[in-house]
Amino acid sequence: MPLKIRSATSDDVPVILSFIKALASFEDCPDSVTTQEADLLRDGFGAHPKFEVLIADLGDVPVGFALFFTSYSTWEGRPGLYLEDLFVKEKARKEGVGRALMRRLANIAKERGYRRLDLQVLDWNPARNFYEQLGMACNQQWLPYRASGKSLRALTTT
User: Fold this and answer.
1) Whether 131 is catalytic
2) pTM strictly above 0.70
């Protein structure tokens, strides 16, 4: 079956949400997704999109997606792409879907004059090997920190 990478449209929102939930299940956090279709419609396909999505179709069947947005490097003085989510259905893995999504992301970055493509991977995720085979490097000097929920609310009063 032919593989096609395409930009998502608002009609793809149910598929995007199903991929997000499948990724959360893969990461052993199936109950953590609170996103609704209305959130994705508003933030991805409204007047001021906050993210973009690529859909990978094998034949006419969506089998993977990549959700990304623009970041900015103050040191390079240029934007970059931040890959928030990449997911390929298990039955479509080893079919080149992930590589095709990553190639398209790299081409988008190049076309837009961006200098880098960033992402995070859980330490136990076997996809780390995939990213390393693509020539990506794990930056162990920079540790991710996050404020959300209670910690974010507490920070507002500090």
Assistant:
1) yes
2) yes
Angle, alpha carbons 104-108-113 (nearest 5°): 150
At 84, which amino acid appears?
A: E
Q: The domain at 3-155 falls in which architecture?
A: 3-Layer(aba) Sandwich (3.40)
Long-range contacts of 89-97 (CB under 8 A, 24+ apart): 89/22, 89/63, 89/64, 91/63, 92/56, 92/58, 92/63, 92/64, 95/3, 95/58, 95/63, 96/3, 97/3, 97/56, 97/58, 97/63, 97/64
What are the residue boundaries of the structural domains of the chain, listed by start? 3-155
Out of 72, 82, 114, 131, pick the active-site residue.
Answer: 131
Nearest to 108 by CA among 43, 63, 52, 29: 52
Cβ proximity of 33 and 24 under 8 Å: yes
pLDDT in tens, 59-90: 999 999 999 999 999 999 999 999 999 999 99
